[in-house]
Amino acid sequence: MVDLDWKAKMVSSEMPNKSPKLSNKLHLTVPASARAVQAEISAASSSACSAYESYLRLPELRKLWGSKEFPEWRNESVLKPALMALEITFRFVSTALSDPRPYANRREWKRRLVSLTKSQIELIAALIEDGEEEGAAPIADSSSAHGVLARDGSSAEVWRIAGGDTTVVSRTSEASLLPRLAMWQTSEDVAEAILYSLECAMRRCPYTLGLGEPNLAGKPTLEYDAVAKPSELHALKKCPYDHEVGSNYENQTVYTTHQVLESWIQSASELLGRAAARIESRSFEAAASDCCLIERIWKLLAEIFDLHLLMDPDDFLRLKNQLAPKSMDDSDAFFCFRSRKLVEITKLCKDLRHRVPYILGVEVDPTGGPRIQEAVMRLYSEEKGGAFEKVHLLQALQAIESALKRFFYAYKQVLVVVMGSLEARGNRVVICPDSCDALSQIFLEPTYFPSLDAAKTFLGNGLTQEQLGGLERRTRSK
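Structure tokens predicted for Ematode resistance protein-like HSPRO1 protein (478 residues):
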């Protein structure tokens, strides 16, 4: 039993003493796993990471992500990788529906990819909404064609908005795969579902993507081909290891899945930088919105990894042994640690805990006093009406922690299903009760925000005591 009376016992230098407003002791049973030290996550060996990046052609993808072609559009670095992930998903649809293997689960692949595409579109729409004030996005207009639009074979139309003199150029992408999927009988129903989803998701945005969606609101369209660069992106569809794996069709599936994954990881990295800058400038409501988007990206990453569950077991295990020989290094045993950027954003998300004192406007008590916890309790119970944006931000920070830990837990379950329980334990044959592999340490470690956790615990206990006291007084009065 752990006594959380802070005057009697100090649990952590970061967890403050008991608030003087609550005099009742609260006893909690803390399992051994929760008392573990904070896990230090690190990337796999340099050779393993380099092989992973070479397999996915990440250096070439990074050049596309990092190209700055619209200096006035500050949302470019966040939105560009997300749009590229969406375009790669269109290629994924084409790949899955072209699978020649008679035992491939095409029906479920179709459903999963439509669901994944819709999730990405909703997240992209949220990114556009929140980045509307970040500078002018490249919008198709008559000036982009010097005031003249081709009559024959043009992908652009000029619309006049009813009731006014405003004209809008509606342009459909010429290089994206989605309009082509809509014309292919095999994928026609998939493309239609995506297009209508796109129309609905973009309702609150100042412009639409221009991928062939109905655009019933007559909005201007993004210069999609100039931003997402579909032609250059699809030039990277060939895996450099195709000659080593032969005709194993799962190679293209794994290759495309991880390209989508890495694109969203890049977008999350940019969002984390923007959120940190907004916290520093005390734009807490905007930072809370960024943190909510980061939480949604973690959930999207888990959805992307779940695609491994549809891969054929024999083909996938053959591919795994062709691409990644067994390693005795614990960090190399888990494929996710070969992504340097994934490890980086995990650390950045954990480091958000150091922003809590700045958000609250208090300094950490070097003696481990109750300063932070009491500030949080005051914010939650007394000052919420005047500082609601701080509450939103603190809630979003804890939501990121929850989504992050769920991602790594879900990743381990996927490993168990597609590779077996031994692989999920990091190739350890014997597991001691107190031992824990590097992956499990991430989702079993204690909370990143002990002060927020303690404040809610004591507030909840205080309300319970007040309710019990009120019931006792009413009973005595009777």
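Residues 388-419 form the longest helix (32 residues).
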